[in-house]
Fold this sequence. Notes:
heterodimer, A: mainly alpha, 0% strand, B: 81% helix
Amino acid sequence: MTAKSGSNSWNTAILYACVAAGGVIGSVARYLASLLIPSLSGFPLATLFVNITGSFIIGFYSTLSGPDGRLFATTRQRQFVMTGICGGYTTFSTFSLETFRLLHDGRTGMALLNIAVSVVTWLVAVWLGHVLASRLNRLKGS
Amino acid sequence: MIGGLLSVVLGSVLGGVARYFVSGFVARRVGETFPWGTLIVNASGAFLIGIVGALAQDDSSVFASADPWLFAVTGFLGCYTTVSSFSLQSLSLAREGERGRAAGYVGLSVALCLAAVSLGFAVVSLFR
């Protein structure tokens, strides 16, 4: 093993550790949200909440710490926040299971509503986060 | 409560590492012009949650009890799959003027994941 490939695998190991650590923080936050937020007459509100707020945060942080951003962040910090915290906090699998259960229980309207509301609000949230961070990036001074 | 929290923590360590590995592996193989990595992560996670969800309907299954469910679903699969990356990638495609690809990504993700959950349930009922 050369010195360079040795430092590369060390760097990769650190990135994995950043993702794992962030993933734990995000997942515990999602677990707490699922305990605190009740479902609204069968509508899975807790999952919607984490997916909206997680999309907003990743849109905001990725633009604020991006190439033209005012926040300097290392690759490790970006992986920790975006791939780790935001990735662990949000969940596509639970959304899919909850939608499937609604369909399975014959609550087709509620299932379709969950799909439509989720996809639209996730995308609006990531866009809002991006727009807000772009504004902050353009402000004078630092 | 502490046992449940520990289950979520352990599951999410594995889920986060698995997502980073799979999405990186797919991106290196097929390139990054389309977010296949996240799509495969989310679809495979949906398939697995379908299997676990179907197994949990049986009271004698391990997944019918709280801690294994918290480990596998809330911890592992919850952390393995992601909406935030999906949203960010959809926005990036749209901002790059790739509106068709963005819409295709959104539609494909939702359709594949719902189909994958159904497939997971179907596989379990096949062996029951």
